[in-house]
Design goal:
With 180 residues, the protein is mainly α. It is built from 6 helices and 3 strands; from the N terminus they run H-E-H-E-H-E-H-H-H. The N and C termini lie far apart (49 Å).
Length: 180
């Protein structure tokens, strides 16, 4: 995540270090940008989407993921629905929503299978989220979307990767020849 301040036990450079790491990954054209946003925060206060837009202006590799739908304040659900529907801050690839294990579930060592079942039950029973597109809800749906995106991105990148590998092979052959 984006670090805004150093806390006790961290060096003062942690903010710059993390920002540099984030920017280096965003700049790589083969990187899929999964912008994770807490659903219980105003989207206008979260800067990862602007960073992603600068690095991916066509929006071909940026997918946003809303987390913590169980912590959305009562009355704020309609605003979050607009974000999930890609109407507040439109993205070419849109948004997904997941409900991860909460602290109590982590402390009690809830298994992954139990967490997936709890997430599914949460979305199915929620008065606010049960009517949303199931292809946008849950870790399993997100996994399918990311797999599809990855395959698409590989198809786009494969010719240049092949070319780069050929160049590297030729350079290695020249080095081998030179070394005898």
């Amino acid at each position: 995540g984006i670090v805004r301040t150093a806390v006790r036990g961290q060096t003062a450079s942690v903010v710059e270090d993390v920002n540099g790491l984030i920017e280096s990954y965003l700049a790589q054209e083969r990187t899929i940008v999964m912008a994770v946003l807490p659903a219980n925060q105003d989207i206008a206060t979260i800067d990862i989407l602007e960073r992603a837009a600068r690095a991916d202006p066509q929006g071909e590799r940026t997918l946003a993921v809303l987390t913590k739908p169980d912590l959305v304040d009562e009355g704020a659900e309609d605003e979050v629905k607009l974000v999930l529907a890609n109407k507040r801050k439109p993205l070419r690839l849109g948004y997904a929503m997941v409900r991860c294990r909460n602290q109590r579930e982590l402390d009690s060592e809830t298994s992954l299978a139990e967490a997936v079942a709890a997430e599914r039950a949460f979305f199915e029973k929620s008065e606010h989220w049960s009517q949303e597109d199931p292809k946008k809800l849950g870790v399993q749906a997100l996994s399918k979307r990311l797999s599809t995106l990855l395959v698409e991105r590989i198809k786009v990148a494969l010719p240049s990767i092949k070319y780069e590998l050929q160049l590297e092979r030729e350079e290695a052959a020249r080095d081998f020849e030179r070394l005898g």
